[in-house]
Amino acid sequence: MTNRPLLALTTGLVLALSACGGSGAGGGENSGSAAPADGDITVGVSMPTQTSERWIADGDSVEQGLKDAGYEVDLQFANDDIPTQSQQIDQMITKGHDVLIIAAIDGTALTSQLAAAEAAGIEVISYDRLIRGSADVDFYVSFDNENVGVQQATSLLNGLGLLNPDGSRGTATGPFNVELFAGSLDDNNAHFFWKGAIDTLKPFMDDGSIVVKSGQTDIGQAATLRWQQETAQQRMENLLTSTYNDGSTVQGVLSPYDGISRGIITALQNVGYGAAGKPMPIISGQDAEIASVKLINDGVQYATIFKDTRKLAEQAVTAAQAYLDGKEPEANDTETYDNGVKVVPSYLLESEIVTKDNVTSALVDTGYYTQAEVDAGQAG
User: Domain range spanning residue 174?
Assistant: First the structure.
């Protein structure tokens, strides 16, 4: 597990919070304080799990940013258990926390909690995963998730040689055997990732340069419940047994998350991929988890999508500060994220494809990891 460097976050927060403005129909009844006094304002932060280094890092970064801004913080991890997260949020509301920042396990499971928050005048910031089916989501901070899917598919196409880095058509023609993996269907982001990726891959599937040999091209078939590495490994093992038992090989895998990628890689290595004469397929990923960054550096995993969660945490803190100042956070997207009841005003950040060629510039030079961490595959 990892603790991200927080110096850059803290510096950015000082600047971002001092410049935080915006206008409109401000916060709820708990709002109106220009600055926290003696730590008497508490922000509840609900994160989905501690089984992923990414969510531990997010929790740590949000907590540190809020503390640096002078707030009390109640950070809770729900260990991928929906009733646990619901109970934790209920307790935050009962305690009278002033703002809630929530990364939901299931984006549809918190309607009653959000209604209670609204009744108590507590603003809710949906963090990275859009909470669905509720009018009581006040703001959403995330990345451009459909574009993340585009980047995942683009990295796969780059690795196969079907696309050049500049977006022009590559010299490779295929056909390449590619298998598709998706995230957890109860996470709204999984659908955005899938749409971006499939829209990008479709022309290559249509012209036959990519072949999904298993025939499993529907998100329901490709889904990975709770994004679990073990679940992905088992599905890859089943695909190898059922589809590639005729001497054919997998040449590419669309993976939406580094943990899923590592499960896929384990299944492939167990049947000889990566050894002489049987190259590892081109495999995408997401989140720049340190174990996968080492695999990329070692030429095992091809790419990941880097979402700088320090910036995401900073934006969540900025949004919380705005509500506590009686204002509305600045949104840069007021059209895209319809949760089924309302279009939630959003602030979206950009992401980056990382391959072996730019690990240093994207991750080391920016202070996200040290070179020693990349070399070891473990954050210190």
Answer: 145-306+356-362+369-376
Q: Are residues 28 and 48 both part of a single domain? A: yes
CA 332 to chain centre: 19
Pairing type for strands 176-180 and 123-127 reads unpaired
CB 294 within 8 A of CB 276: no
Q: Assign 39 a pLDDT band (cuts: 50, 70, 90).
A: low
Q: Which two tokens stand for residue 362?
A: 């994207």
Number of C-alpha atoms within 13 angstroms, CB side, residue 208? 0
Beta bridge partners of 201: none
Q: What is the mean pLDDT of residues 324-329?
A: 96
Q: Is the dihedral angle over the CA atoms 355, 356, 361, 364 positive or is it negative?
A: positive
**Residue 47 main-chain phi, psi, to 5 deg:** -110, 150
Give the list of residues 6+ apart from residue 90 with CB closer than 8 angstroms, or none: 113, 116
pTM, entire model = 0.84
* Domain containing residue 33: CATH number: 3.40.50.2300
- Please report whether residue 325 resides in a domain: yes
Distance of alpha carbon 111 from the chain centroid: 22
110 three-class SS: coil
1 in a domain, yes or no?
Answer: no
